[in-house]
Amino acid sequence: MKKRFTVGSAVAVILIALCLAPFLYVLLKSILTDDGATFIYYYDVFLATPQYLLRFWLSAGLTILVAAGQTIVSSLAGFGFAKYNFPGRNVVFFFLLVLMILPLQVTLVPNYIVLDKLKLLDTYGALILPAIFIPLGTFIMAQGFRAIPDEIIDAAKVDGCRTLPLIVRVALPINKNGLVCTFLLSFLDAWNMVEQPIAFIKDQKRWPLSVSLASTLPADPTVRLVCCVLAVIPPLFLFMYFNRELTEGIALGKEL
User: Fold this and answer.
1) What does 69-129 look like in DSSP terms, one character per residue?
2) What confidence tier does 218 reach under pLDDT thresholds 50, 70, 90?
3) What percent of the chain has pLDDT over 90?
4) CA 77, 80, 83 angle in degrees (round to 5)?
5) Which whole-number Å values give the CA distances from 166 to 105, 159, 170, 172, 249, in the listed order?
6) CA-to-CA distance for 140 and 98, rounded, in angstroms?
7) Average of pLDDT values for 158-170?
């Protein structure tokens, strides 16, 4: 048993090192130069490269809108699947699970056609609207709401609490882990989107940071590395701060 634990720990350390190696390389290369350690490139990015900060805050605002919209839609849909009996509920939920396994590339063409009909191509609405209706968030929220005893919901209804206040004041505080998990996963997905901006927005100047990092930033490789480091900060901060809620929310989502 001790030998297995040692081997397993060694394998885990190796895998963690392999995962961290690229980030550590980028971090060190952005600081270390031939003359020693310096933060001059970080100064250049913050003050001498305003287009980076513009793209950074543009991506942050875009991502927050997507994450907030997806969280709201997933909360309402998840509560409906979890606490309401309606014809075809299980069938619809099954197709929701099927949609979860479809690759993003499969839905790009249908989304492009719909967005073209709605006259939303080449606008930020083309990035926000399709990203709001993602089945994973609905699945996670539904699983969390199912864990809430029906007696609590019935008691709130007896006290005269209507559906929307019931969700906001009763169900969501209890399902906080699922709520945080849904927001974080949607934030990470939107922050790292690549195919959607390329397919839906032609003007490269309007691309978010996830795409523009490789195409329109300064030619200096060290400055590019600094931009990459700063792009990691928002998702890394959210993951470290909400690590427990994210872990428990994912674990709850596994309970089918």
Assistant:
1) HHHHHHHHHHHHHHH---TTHHHHHHHHHHHHTS-HHHHHHHHHHHHHHTT-TTSTHHHHH
2) low
3) 19
4) 145
5) 37, 10, 5, 9, 21
6) 14
7) 87
Beta bridge partners of 36: 33
- pLDDT band at residue 68 using 50, 70 and 90 as cut-offs: very high
Number of Cβ within 10 Å of residue 121's Cβ equals: 15
List residues bridging with 33 in a β-sheet: 36
Could you give the CA distance from residue 229 to residue 42 in angstroms, rounded to a whole number?
10
Evaluate if residue 94 carries a pLDDT over 70.
yes
* Secondary structure of residue 33 in the 3-state scheme: strand
Distance CA 16, CA 20 (A): 6
- The residues facing 37 across adjacent strands are 32
At 128, list the tokens: 């926000």
Q: How far is CA 110 from CA 66, 92, 99, 114, in A?
A: 19, 20, 14, 6
DSSP label at residue 37: E
Give the closest residue to 73 by CA, choosing from 10, 158, 131, 149: 131
3-state secondary structure 125-180: HHHHHHHHCCHHHHHHHHHHHHCCCHHHHHHHHHCCCCHHHHHHHHHHHHCHHHHH
pTM for this predicted structure: 0.83
Using the predicted structure, report yes or no on whether residue 1 has a pLDDT greater than 70: no
**Cα–Cα distance, 18 to 101 (Å, whole number):** 27
Task: For residue 221, give both structure tokens.
Answer: 């490789």
Contact criterion met (CB below 8 Å) for 84 and 196: no
Domain spanning 50-253: which superfamily?
Answer: MetI-like (1.10.3720.10)
Dist. CA 37–CA 47, nearest whole Å: 19
What are the beta bridge partners of residue 32? 37
